[in-house]
Amino acid sequence: MSQTLTHKRVLSVALPIVLSNATIPILGAVDTGVVGQLGDAVPIGAVGIGAIIISGIYWMFGFLRMGTTGLTAQAIGEKNVGETAALLTRTLIIGVAAGLLVMLLQIPLFWLAFKAAPATPEVETMAHGYMQIRIYSAPAAIGLYGITGWLLAHERTRAVLVLQVWMNGLNIVLDLLFVLQFGWGVEGVAIATFLAEWSGFALGIFLARDVFGNALWRNWEQVFDRIRLTRMAIVNSDIMLRSMMLKASFMTFLFMGARFGNVTLAANQVLLQFMEITAYAMDGFAISAEALVGQALGAKNRNQFRRSVYLSCFWGVAIISVMALMFWLCGGWVIDVMTNAADVRIDAREYLPWMVLAPIAGVTCWMLDGVFIGATRSKDMRNMMFLSVVIYIIALYFLVPVYGNHGLWAALNVLFIARGVTLAWKYPALEASVEKA
Questions:
Q1: In this structure, are 32 and 67 located in the same domain?
Q2: Whole-prediction pTM
Q3: Assigned domain for 231 exists
Q4: In this predicted model, what pLDDT tens digit does every residue of 183-196 receive, in sequence order?
Protein backbone atom coordinates (compact mmCIF):
# COMPACT_ATOMS: atom_id res chain seq x y z
CA MET A 1 0.00 0.00 0.00
CA SER A 2 1.40 3.37 -1.02
CA GLN A 3 2.12 5.70 1.85
CA THR A 4 2.14 8.85 -0.30
CA LEU A 5 -1.07 10.83 -0.07
CA THR A 6 -1.98 11.94 -3.58
CA HIS A 7 -5.11 12.76 -5.57
CA LYS A 8 -4.65 9.44 -7.38
CA ARG A 9 -4.69 7.52 -4.10
CA VAL A 10 -7.91 9.21 -2.96
CA LEU A 11 -9.59 8.46 -6.30
CA SER A 12 -8.36 4.86 -6.24
CA VAL A 13 -10.19 4.44 -2.91
CA ALA A 14 -13.33 6.38 -3.82
CA LEU A 15 -14.18 5.44 -7.41
CA PRO A 16 -14.63 1.66 -6.89
CA ILE A 17 -17.14 2.44 -4.12
CA VAL A 18 -19.06 4.79 -6.42
CA LEU A 19 -19.16 2.02 -9.05
CA SER A 20 -20.20 -0.66 -6.55
CA ASN A 21 -23.00 1.57 -5.26
CA ALA A 22 -24.29 1.90 -8.82
CA THR A 23 -25.19 -1.82 -8.79
CA ILE A 24 -27.60 -1.42 -5.86
CA PRO A 25 -30.50 0.36 -7.64
CA ILE A 26 -30.07 -2.00 -10.61
CA LEU A 27 -30.73 -5.00 -8.35
CA GLY A 28 -33.81 -3.30 -6.88
CA ALA A 29 -35.15 -2.63 -10.36
CA VAL A 30 -34.64 -6.27 -11.42
CA ASP A 31 -36.32 -7.58 -8.24
CA THR A 32 -39.34 -5.42 -9.02
CA GLY A 33 -39.23 -6.20 -12.73
CA VAL A 34 -39.24 -9.99 -12.47
CA VAL A 35 -42.21 -10.14 -10.12
CA GLY A 36 -43.88 -7.52 -12.27
CA GLN A 37 -43.94 -10.13 -15.05
CA LEU A 38 -46.34 -12.22 -12.94
CA GLY A 39 -49.17 -9.86 -13.95
CA ASP A 40 -50.38 -9.11 -10.42
CA ALA A 41 -49.80 -6.11 -8.12
CA VAL A 42 -49.66 -8.24 -4.95
CA PRO A 43 -46.22 -9.84 -5.59
CA ILE A 44 -44.73 -6.42 -6.40
CA GLY A 45 -46.03 -4.99 -3.13
CA ALA A 46 -44.95 -8.08 -1.19
CA VAL A 47 -41.35 -7.95 -2.45
CA GLY A 48 -41.26 -4.19 -1.90
CA ILE A 49 -42.49 -4.19 1.70
CA GLY A 50 -40.63 -7.42 2.57
CA ALA A 51 -37.33 -6.04 1.29
CA ILE A 52 -37.83 -2.75 3.15
CA ILE A 53 -38.52 -4.54 6.44
CA ILE A 54 -35.58 -6.95 6.12
CA SER A 55 -33.24 -4.15 5.04
CA GLY A 56 -34.45 -2.04 7.96
CA ILE A 57 -33.71 -4.85 10.43
CA TYR A 58 -30.22 -5.37 8.98
CA TRP A 59 -29.65 -1.58 8.80
CA MET A 60 -29.78 -1.44 12.61
CA PHE A 61 -26.38 -3.15 12.55
CA GLY A 62 -24.90 -0.85 9.90
CA PHE A 63 -22.73 0.71 12.61
CA LEU A 64 -20.56 -2.41 12.36
CA ARG A 65 -19.28 -1.28 8.95
CA MET A 66 -18.39 2.26 10.04
CA GLY A 67 -16.98 1.37 13.45
CA THR A 68 -14.83 -1.41 11.99
CA THR A 69 -13.41 0.90 9.31
CA GLY A 70 -12.32 3.55 11.81
CA LEU A 71 -10.85 1.16 14.37
CA THR A 72 -9.05 -0.97 11.76
CA ALA A 73 -7.63 2.06 9.92
CA GLN A 74 -6.15 3.32 13.19
CA ALA A 75 -4.64 -0.08 13.93
CA ILE A 76 -3.08 -0.04 10.45
CA GLY A 77 -1.67 3.43 11.10
CA GLU A 78 -0.21 2.17 14.39
CA LYS A 79 1.29 -0.79 12.50
CA ASN A 80 -0.44 -3.04 15.04
CA VAL A 81 -0.75 -6.21 12.96
CA GLY A 82 -2.13 -8.23 15.86
CA GLU A 83 -5.00 -5.82 16.52
CA THR A 84 -5.75 -5.51 12.81
CA ALA A 85 -6.21 -9.29 12.61
CA ALA A 86 -8.12 -9.46 15.90
CA LEU A 87 -10.55 -6.77 14.68
CA LEU A 88 -11.63 -8.94 11.75
CA THR A 89 -12.28 -11.90 14.05
CA ARG A 90 -14.06 -9.67 16.55
CA THR A 91 -16.34 -8.08 14.00
CA LEU A 92 -17.15 -11.46 12.40
CA ILE A 93 -18.16 -12.89 15.78
CA ILE A 94 -20.35 -9.87 16.53
CA GLY A 95 -21.91 -9.90 13.06
CA VAL A 96 -22.73 -13.60 13.01
CA ALA A 97 -24.02 -13.51 16.60
CA ALA A 98 -26.25 -10.53 15.75
CA GLY A 99 -27.57 -12.41 12.71
CA LEU A 100 -28.40 -15.48 14.79
CA LEU A 101 -30.20 -13.27 17.32
CA VAL A 102 -32.27 -11.71 14.53
CA MET A 103 -33.20 -15.20 13.30
CA LEU A 104 -34.31 -16.20 16.80
CA LEU A 105 -36.40 -13.03 17.21
CA GLN A 106 -37.98 -13.11 13.76
CA ILE A 107 -41.56 -13.66 14.97
CA PRO A 108 -41.79 -10.55 17.20
CA LEU A 109 -39.70 -8.51 14.70
CA PHE A 110 -42.05 -9.32 11.82
CA TRP A 111 -45.11 -8.68 13.97
CA LEU A 112 -43.82 -5.24 14.98
CA ALA A 113 -42.88 -4.43 11.40
CA PHE A 114 -46.36 -5.16 10.06
CA LYS A 115 -47.92 -3.19 12.92
CA ALA A 116 -45.79 -0.19 11.96
CA ALA A 117 -46.37 -0.61 8.19
CA PRO A 118 -49.63 -2.51 7.68
CA ALA A 119 -50.60 -3.78 4.23
CA THR A 120 -53.48 -5.78 2.76
CA PRO A 121 -53.80 -9.37 4.04
CA GLU A 122 -52.72 -10.74 0.63
CA VAL A 123 -49.58 -8.61 0.52
CA GLU A 124 -48.71 -9.34 4.17
CA THR A 125 -49.07 -13.10 3.67
CA MET A 126 -46.83 -13.12 0.60
CA ALA A 127 -44.34 -10.70 2.19
CA HIS A 128 -44.17 -12.89 5.28
CA GLY A 129 -43.20 -15.88 3.13
CA TYR A 130 -40.51 -13.78 1.43
CA MET A 131 -39.12 -12.59 4.79
CA GLN A 132 -39.11 -16.09 6.32
CA ILE A 133 -36.61 -17.10 3.63
CA ARG A 134 -34.52 -13.92 3.66
CA ILE A 135 -34.10 -13.90 7.45
CA TYR A 136 -31.90 -17.01 7.33
CA SER A 137 -29.16 -15.07 5.60
CA ALA A 138 -29.02 -12.56 8.49
CA PRO A 139 -25.65 -13.84 9.83
CA ALA A 140 -24.14 -13.45 6.36
CA ALA A 141 -25.69 -10.05 5.62
CA ILE A 142 -24.73 -8.52 8.98
CA GLY A 143 -21.33 -10.23 9.03
CA LEU A 144 -20.64 -8.64 5.63
CA TYR A 145 -20.87 -5.19 7.25
CA GLY A 146 -17.82 -6.04 9.31
CA ILE A 147 -15.88 -7.62 6.44
CA THR A 148 -16.60 -4.62 4.21
CA GLY A 149 -15.48 -2.18 6.91
CA TRP A 150 -12.25 -4.13 7.42
CA LEU A 151 -11.48 -4.19 3.68
CA LEU A 152 -12.23 -0.47 3.35
CA ALA A 153 -9.81 0.36 6.15
CA HIS A 154 -7.11 -1.36 4.09
CA GLU A 155 -8.13 0.78 1.08
CA ARG A 156 -9.14 -2.42 -0.69
CA THR A 157 -12.11 -0.83 -2.39
CA ARG A 158 -11.59 -2.84 -5.57
CA ALA A 159 -12.18 -5.96 -3.51
CA VAL A 160 -15.40 -4.39 -2.20
CA LEU A 161 -16.39 -3.62 -5.81
CA VAL A 162 -15.77 -7.27 -6.77
CA LEU A 163 -17.84 -8.37 -3.76
CA GLN A 164 -20.80 -6.13 -4.64
CA VAL A 165 -20.73 -6.96 -8.36
CA TRP A 166 -20.59 -10.70 -7.57
CA MET A 167 -23.44 -10.60 -5.06
CA ASN A 168 -25.75 -8.34 -7.05
CA GLY A 169 -24.87 -10.01 -10.35
CA LEU A 170 -25.57 -13.49 -8.97
CA ASN A 171 -28.78 -12.21 -7.40
CA ILE A 172 -29.98 -10.86 -10.75
CA VAL A 173 -29.14 -14.10 -12.62
CA LEU A 174 -30.90 -16.21 -9.98
CA ASP A 175 -33.90 -13.84 -10.01
CA LEU A 176 -34.34 -14.43 -13.73
CA LEU A 177 -33.82 -18.19 -13.37
CA PHE A 178 -35.99 -18.85 -10.32
CA VAL A 179 -38.88 -16.51 -11.17
CA LEU A 180 -39.09 -16.45 -14.97
CA GLN A 181 -37.82 -19.99 -15.70
CA PHE A 182 -38.86 -22.03 -12.66
CA GLY A 183 -41.96 -19.99 -11.77
CA TRP A 184 -41.15 -19.76 -8.06
CA GLY A 185 -42.62 -16.25 -7.74
CA VAL A 186 -41.88 -14.16 -4.66
CA GLU A 187 -40.17 -17.11 -2.95
CA GLY A 188 -37.80 -17.30 -5.91
CA VAL A 189 -36.72 -13.69 -5.37
CA ALA A 190 -36.11 -14.42 -1.68
CA ILE A 191 -34.11 -17.59 -2.39
CA ALA A 192 -32.00 -15.72 -4.95
CA THR A 193 -31.08 -13.07 -2.38
CA PHE A 194 -30.50 -15.69 0.33
CA LEU A 195 -28.00 -17.54 -1.87
CA ALA A 196 -26.35 -14.31 -3.06
CA GLU A 197 -25.81 -13.06 0.50
CA TRP A 198 -24.29 -16.32 1.74
CA SER A 199 -22.06 -16.57 -1.34
CA GLY A 200 -21.04 -12.93 -0.77
CA PHE A 201 -20.13 -13.73 2.81
CA ALA A 202 -17.98 -16.65 1.65
CA LEU A 203 -16.32 -14.46 -0.98
CA GLY A 204 -15.69 -11.76 1.64
CA ILE A 205 -13.87 -14.30 3.83
CA PHE A 206 -11.86 -15.37 0.79
CA LEU A 207 -10.92 -11.76 -0.05
CA ALA A 208 -9.65 -11.29 3.51
CA ARG A 209 -7.84 -14.65 3.47
CA ASP A 210 -4.35 -13.15 3.93
CA VAL A 211 -5.12 -12.46 7.58
CA PHE A 212 -5.73 -16.16 8.22
CA GLY A 213 -2.16 -17.00 7.19
CA ASN A 214 -0.91 -16.62 10.75
CA ALA A 215 -2.27 -17.26 14.23
CA LEU A 216 -2.92 -13.61 15.12
CA TRP A 217 -6.56 -13.76 14.02
CA ARG A 218 -7.22 -16.43 16.67
CA ASN A 219 -5.28 -14.84 19.49
CA TRP A 220 -8.33 -15.13 21.73
CA GLU A 221 -6.76 -13.14 24.55
CA GLN A 222 -6.52 -10.12 22.23
CA VAL A 223 -9.79 -10.79 20.41
CA PHE A 224 -11.70 -10.75 23.71
CA ASP A 225 -9.57 -8.06 25.37
CA ARG A 226 -12.01 -6.24 27.66
CA ILE A 227 -10.66 -2.74 27.04
CA ARG A 228 -10.77 -3.12 23.26
CA LEU A 229 -14.19 -4.74 23.33
CA THR A 230 -15.48 -1.89 25.50
CA ARG A 231 -14.07 0.71 23.12
CA MET A 232 -15.63 -1.08 20.15
CA ALA A 233 -18.99 -1.24 21.94
CA ILE A 234 -18.91 2.49 22.78
CA VAL A 235 -17.96 3.50 19.23
CA ASN A 236 -20.61 1.26 17.67
CA SER A 237 -23.38 2.29 20.06
CA ASP A 238 -22.69 5.99 19.47
CA ILE A 239 -22.76 5.50 15.70
CA MET A 240 -25.99 3.51 15.99
CA LEU A 241 -27.68 6.29 17.99
CA ARG A 242 -26.45 8.89 15.50
CA SER A 243 -27.77 6.83 12.58
CA MET A 244 -31.15 6.32 14.28
CA MET A 245 -31.53 10.08 14.77
CA LEU A 246 -30.66 10.67 11.11
CA LYS A 247 -33.15 8.01 9.99
CA ALA A 248 -35.84 9.50 12.24
CA SER A 249 -35.22 12.92 10.67
CA PHE A 250 -35.85 11.59 7.17
CA MET A 251 -38.92 9.68 8.33
CA THR A 252 -40.26 12.90 9.87
CA PHE A 253 -39.72 14.63 6.53
CA LEU A 254 -41.72 11.91 4.74
CA PHE A 255 -44.56 11.85 7.25
CA MET A 256 -44.92 15.63 7.28
CA GLY A 257 -44.85 15.69 3.49
CA ALA A 258 -47.82 13.31 3.48
CA ARG A 259 -49.91 16.06 5.11
CA PHE A 260 -49.81 18.08 1.90
CA GLY A 261 -51.59 15.43 -0.16
CA ASN A 262 -50.71 12.52 -2.38
CA VAL A 263 -49.37 14.64 -5.23
CA THR A 264 -46.90 16.54 -3.05
CA LEU A 265 -45.92 13.33 -1.26
CA ALA A 266 -45.20 11.70 -4.63
CA ALA A 267 -43.23 14.76 -5.78
CA ASN A 268 -41.12 14.63 -2.62
CA GLN A 269 -40.46 10.93 -3.18
CA VAL A 270 -39.30 11.62 -6.73
CA LEU A 271 -36.95 14.37 -5.57
CA LEU A 272 -35.57 12.19 -2.78
CA GLN A 273 -34.24 9.86 -5.46
CA PHE A 274 -31.85 12.69 -6.35
CA MET A 275 -30.69 12.52 -2.71
CA GLU A 276 -30.16 8.79 -3.10
CA ILE A 277 -27.94 9.39 -6.13
CA THR A 278 -26.00 12.03 -4.19
CA ALA A 279 -25.49 9.68 -1.25
CA TYR A 280 -24.19 6.89 -3.50
CA ALA A 281 -21.71 9.25 -5.17
CA MET A 282 -20.52 10.87 -1.93
CA ASP A 283 -20.12 7.55 -0.14
CA GLY A 284 -16.88 6.80 -1.96
CA PHE A 285 -15.19 10.06 -0.96
CA ALA A 286 -16.44 9.89 2.63
CA ILE A 287 -15.01 6.36 2.85
CA SER A 288 -11.66 7.58 1.50
CA ALA A 289 -11.66 10.06 4.38
CA GLU A 290 -12.49 7.27 6.85
CA ALA A 291 -9.60 5.06 5.76
CA LEU A 292 -6.93 7.75 5.26
CA VAL A 293 -7.82 9.80 8.35
CA GLY A 294 -7.92 6.68 10.52
CA GLN A 295 -4.48 5.59 9.32
CA ALA A 296 -3.03 9.08 9.89
CA LEU A 297 -4.49 9.21 13.40
CA GLY A 298 -3.10 5.77 14.19
CA ALA A 299 0.31 6.89 12.94
CA LYS A 300 0.00 10.08 15.05
CA ASN A 301 0.90 12.14 11.99
CA ARG A 302 -0.88 15.50 11.98
CA ASN A 303 0.40 16.56 8.55
CA GLN A 304 -0.82 13.32 7.01
CA PHE A 305 -4.12 13.73 8.87
CA ARG A 306 -4.61 17.26 7.52
CA ARG A 307 -3.73 16.23 3.97
CA SER A 308 -6.12 13.26 4.16
CA VAL A 309 -8.95 15.60 5.09
CA TYR A 310 -8.00 18.14 2.42
CA LEU A 311 -7.70 15.71 -0.50
CA SER A 312 -10.87 13.77 0.35
CA CYS A 313 -12.88 16.96 0.83
CA PHE A 314 -11.44 18.50 -2.35
CA TRP A 315 -12.84 15.68 -4.47
CA GLY A 316 -16.06 15.50 -2.46
CA VAL A 317 -16.75 19.19 -3.07
CA ALA A 318 -15.78 18.88 -6.75
CA ILE A 319 -18.20 15.99 -7.31
CA ILE A 320 -21.00 17.69 -5.38
CA SER A 321 -20.60 20.88 -7.40
CA VAL A 322 -20.92 18.92 -10.65
CA MET A 323 -23.98 17.06 -9.31
CA ALA A 324 -25.72 20.27 -8.22
CA LEU A 325 -25.11 21.72 -11.69
CA MET A 326 -26.48 18.57 -13.34
CA PHE A 327 -29.58 18.62 -11.11
CA TRP A 328 -30.17 22.22 -12.15
CA LEU A 329 -29.67 21.59 -15.86
CA CYS A 330 -31.23 18.12 -16.18
CA GLY A 331 -33.54 17.85 -13.16
CA GLY A 332 -36.70 18.50 -15.14
CA TRP A 333 -35.83 15.79 -17.65
CA VAL A 334 -35.08 13.28 -14.88
CA ILE A 335 -38.42 14.08 -13.22
CA ASP A 336 -40.23 13.39 -16.52
CA VAL A 337 -38.44 10.02 -16.85
CA MET A 338 -39.36 9.02 -13.29
CA THR A 339 -43.08 9.81 -13.46
CA ASN A 340 -45.79 10.15 -16.12
CA ALA A 341 -48.22 11.93 -13.79
CA ALA A 342 -48.56 15.52 -14.98
CA ASP A 343 -49.52 16.92 -11.56
CA VAL A 344 -46.56 15.19 -9.87
CA ARG A 345 -44.22 16.56 -12.55
CA ILE A 346 -45.46 20.09 -11.94
CA ASP A 347 -45.08 19.80 -8.15
CA ALA A 348 -41.62 18.21 -8.40
CA ARG A 349 -40.42 21.03 -10.67
CA GLU A 350 -41.68 23.60 -8.17
CA TYR A 351 -39.55 22.11 -5.37
CA LEU A 352 -36.56 21.16 -7.55
CA PRO A 353 -34.50 24.24 -6.52
CA TRP A 354 -34.39 22.88 -2.96
CA MET A 355 -32.95 19.63 -4.30
CA VAL A 356 -30.34 21.57 -6.26
CA LEU A 357 -29.37 23.30 -3.01
CA ALA A 358 -29.33 20.11 -0.91
CA PRO A 359 -25.97 18.68 -2.13
CA ILE A 360 -24.28 22.04 -1.53
CA ALA A 361 -25.86 22.35 1.92
CA GLY A 362 -24.91 18.77 2.79
CA VAL A 363 -21.38 18.38 1.44
CA THR A 364 -19.72 19.57 4.67
CA CYS A 365 -21.61 17.14 6.90
CA TRP A 366 -21.17 14.20 4.51
CA MET A 367 -17.41 14.66 4.31
CA LEU A 368 -16.94 15.41 8.02
CA ASP A 369 -18.94 12.28 8.82
CA GLY A 370 -16.18 10.35 7.06
CA VAL A 371 -13.48 12.25 8.94
CA PHE A 372 -15.06 11.67 12.35
CA ILE A 373 -15.79 7.99 11.60
CA GLY A 374 -12.14 7.45 10.63
CA ALA A 375 -11.07 9.17 13.84
CA THR A 376 -13.68 7.12 15.81
CA ARG A 377 -14.93 10.36 17.38
CA SER A 378 -18.34 8.75 17.69
CA LYS A 379 -19.33 10.69 20.80
CA ASP A 380 -18.93 13.97 18.92
CA MET A 381 -20.94 12.55 16.02
CA ARG A 382 -23.74 11.46 18.36
CA ASN A 383 -23.86 14.75 20.27
CA MET A 384 -23.65 16.98 17.20
CA MET A 385 -26.38 14.95 15.53
CA PHE A 386 -28.61 15.47 18.58
CA LEU A 387 -27.96 19.21 18.48
CA SER A 388 -28.65 19.30 14.73
CA VAL A 389 -31.92 17.42 15.15
CA VAL A 390 -33.05 19.94 17.77
CA ILE A 391 -32.29 22.74 15.29
CA TYR A 392 -34.17 20.79 12.60
CA ILE A 393 -37.25 20.42 14.82
CA ILE A 394 -37.21 24.17 15.56
CA ALA A 395 -36.95 24.89 11.82
CA LEU A 396 -39.89 22.57 11.12
CA TYR A 397 -41.95 24.27 13.83
CA PHE A 398 -41.47 27.76 12.40
CA LEU A 399 -41.13 27.14 8.65
CA VAL A 400 -43.70 24.47 7.78
CA PRO A 401 -46.83 26.28 9.09
CA VAL A 402 -45.89 29.40 7.11
CA TYR A 403 -44.36 28.02 3.91
CA GLY A 404 -45.85 24.52 3.67
CA ASN A 405 -43.80 22.04 1.64
CA HIS A 406 -41.28 24.76 0.77
CA GLY A 407 -40.75 25.16 4.51
CA LEU A 408 -40.32 21.40 4.86
CA TRP A 409 -37.56 21.35 2.22
CA ALA A 410 -35.96 24.43 3.78
CA ALA A 411 -35.91 22.67 7.17
CA LEU A 412 -34.23 19.61 5.64
CA ASN A 413 -31.50 21.83 4.22
CA VAL A 414 -31.19 23.48 7.65
CA LEU A 415 -30.55 20.00 9.07
CA PHE A 416 -27.72 19.43 6.58
CA ILE A 417 -26.17 22.82 7.31
CA ALA A 418 -26.52 22.33 11.09
CA ARG A 419 -24.77 18.96 10.90
CA GLY A 420 -21.92 20.45 8.90
CA VAL A 421 -21.52 23.51 11.15
CA THR A 422 -21.61 21.55 14.40
CA LEU A 423 -19.07 18.98 13.20
CA ALA A 424 -16.86 21.78 11.83
CA TRP A 425 -17.03 23.36 15.30
CA LYS A 426 -15.55 20.16 16.75
CA TYR A 427 -12.96 19.69 14.02
CA PRO A 428 -10.16 21.97 15.37
CA ALA A 429 -10.07 20.01 18.63
CA LEU A 430 -9.93 16.76 16.66
CA GLU A 431 -6.98 17.94 14.55
CA ALA A 432 -5.21 19.33 17.62
CA SER A 433 -5.48 15.90 19.30
CA VAL A 434 -3.32 14.34 16.59
CA GLU A 435 0.36 14.42 17.52
CA LYS A 436 2.64 16.20 15.09
CA ALA A 437 4.79 14.15 12.77
A1: yes
A2: 0.89
A3: no
A4: 998 999 999 999 99
